[in-house]
Amino acid sequence: MTLLTSCSVIGAGSDTSDTEVSVRANITDKASMQAVVAAFHRARPGIHVNVSYADTNTLQKELPQQLRAGKAPDVFTVWPGSGNPASVLALKEDDFLEALSLRFFAGRIPDSMRPVTDGGVGTYLVPVTFSAVGAIYSAETLRAIGGTRPTTYSGLLALCDTARRHGKVLFALGNQTPWVTQLVDYALVATTVYAHDPGFDTQMESGKESFARSGWRQAMAKYLEMRDRGCFSTAPLKTSYEDALDQVADGRAVGVVQVAGTLAALRSAAPGMHFRMTALPATDQPNETRIPGAVSAAYGLNAKAPHRKAALAFVDFLGSERGQNLYNRSGATLPALPSNSFSVDPAVAEVARRQKDGTTVPFMDQRWPNSEVQQTHFEQVRALFAGTTDIAHALAAMDSAYE
Fold first, then answer.
1. Which one of 28, 111, 273, 307 is least enclosed by Cβ atoms within 10 Å?
2. Sign of the C-alpha dihedral, residues 91, 96, 100, 101?
3. CA dist 178 to 55, 243, 340, 400, Å?
4. Would you tell me how many other CB atoms lie within 10 Å of the CB of residue 208?
5. Tens of pLDDT, residues 64-80
6. Nearest-CA neighbor of 105 among 23, 4, 21, 13?
């Protein structure tokens, strides 16, 4: 398998010497992408990969605009599914992506991932990471307050109290950054909705379920209960993603609810700390607990890429076993394309276990029919924290956007 992958990478761009490839990636994946680019440069010194980074909100706004204007990079972050303007199905619908179904890596995509990577229309992205949304704790700060990672919701609230007694907060929360607003909801909904109704997304698509009538209501109520219990930063709407990580790095917060890719940024900011990701419990029955886990980082090829052959070589490298291992080893995530040669980072050992035992659920927005649902969710969570709406109206707005 490795030999075939290597041949695919080398053969994809044999006439691409002295070519520059432009890549646009998420800032949360910077450490991972840098490791891959360095290895690619060693393997293909005639191709220079120039990467620029931006946060989620900027990418989802700017990439479609750049593609429509013919000014997009050769390779860029895309999101699986259909839940935002830069998702694979939304960009495919506008013919912005080149088909990758014949690339070697496409045949290695697990069938379980294809509803959000392919959507029945063929392969138009290279999936790179299997990530999760959960609670990331600093082992040192947790030990300093005499706490342990909770496995029940009651234990979670009690740990919030313990952290406060030690002059800290349990979780730094950067809701000033719009995409961060969704993460606690997602972590809780994994259990309050999907533990008892794994077919919820299909029920939503057929109109038999809604946000307002489901466990989303309980998840939002628990989100606000955690806020009122003092689990979060004192001013979440004035705290950015970067500020939140700083709070964890300097010990003001015990941890943060984030995507697994954030582990790389935390380690860079606090190299002496040890971090561990776990599911965020939403009930007092540990066997019910689920964690959002799905294809996260993925890349598409511009259908009008000015350096197509060189870009294909880089895309193939991202899809190779070596590329996947490098990307995920640097970012403390798991390869999207399963590999027996990958050593799981201890920080995401629970995620790997849950991936194997089937206690992960898809990222919620990957099955949403349009990008308005996610944007509405961002806005409604911010309004809940600002005190300008309530849960009933927030969920009604999401249902309206879904329909």
1. 111
2. positive
3. 10, 14, 37, 20
4. 11
5. 999 999 999 999 999 99
6. 4
